[in-house]
Specification:
alpha/beta, 5-stranded parallel sheet, globular
């Protein structure tokens, strides 16, 4: 039996935007609408990629520079795509992912100044012919996002990217918004400064409008 290809949805944005919360809500709503859903994340999402996650987020790779970090992210992504994302899509499942290639384009590319041709080559190797069907950018000013991230960490040390200063995170935010302006068909920018219920309301509305879905009423905010 053959299956229609599933849909691939990603959530992006700077730190503290509430992506993990909205991944859960989105998956619950899609399951309520009868879809088989896989939730995942980057870096990580497969056994090999999860091992690289610790290297990347601990900052162990930082001293090698943004080019090397981009290579490690691509290696993690290749494992993730091969073992989690593509098999799920080929089986007709929907995949909801917390970060994907847009984060590399922003953090290592626009902010880290890795050459766009190099990043494109890495994307071709790690995720050939794979682009999200719809990407939600949860937009929040860095001052708010970093405060939320610190509260979420409950005193734990900030990770490789959370520890960067406001100027870095302001550049991250600007780069994500630039991506959205460049492709209004794929990206939806959501004001994530608001309570999670209101953020979800806008995600739900955009999902229904863009993909022609009708989600169950009980998932409405």
């Amino acid at each position: 039996m053959t299956h229609a290809r599933g849909r691939f949805l990603t959530l992006e944005g700077g730190e503290g935007g509430g992506k993990s919360t909205q991944v859960r809500r989105l998956a619950e709503a899609l399951r309520g609408a009868g879809r088989d859903v896989v939730t995942t994340r980057e870096p990580g999402g497969s056994p090999g990629a999860e091992r690289l996650r610790e290297v990347l987020l601990s900052g162990a790779a930082e001293r090698f520079g943004p080019d090397a970090e981009a290579v490690l992210f691509a290696a993690a992504r290749a494992d993730h795509v091969d073992h989690t994302i593509r098999p799920a899509l080929d089986a007709g499942k929907w995949v909801v992912c917390d970060r994907f290639m847009d984060s590399t384009r922003v953090y290592q590319g626009a902010v880290g100044k890795v050459d766009v041709r190099f990043l494109s080559a890495l994307e071709h190797v790690a995720a050939p012919n794979l682009t999200p069907d719809l990407t939600f950018i949860l937009d929040v000013p860095p001052e708010i996002g970093l405060e939320r991230a610190a509260a979420r960490g409950k005193g734990a040390a900030a990770d490789r990217f959370e520890k960067e200063g406001l100027a870095f995170h302001a550049a991250v935010r600007a780069a994500f918004l630039d991506l959205a302006r460049g492709d209004a068909n794929r990206y939806v920018v959501i004001d994530a400064t608001r309570p999670a219920d209101l953020v979800w309301r806008d995600i739900r509305a955009a999902l229904e409008a863009r993909l022609g879905l009708t989600l169950p009423a009980e998932n409405a905010a």
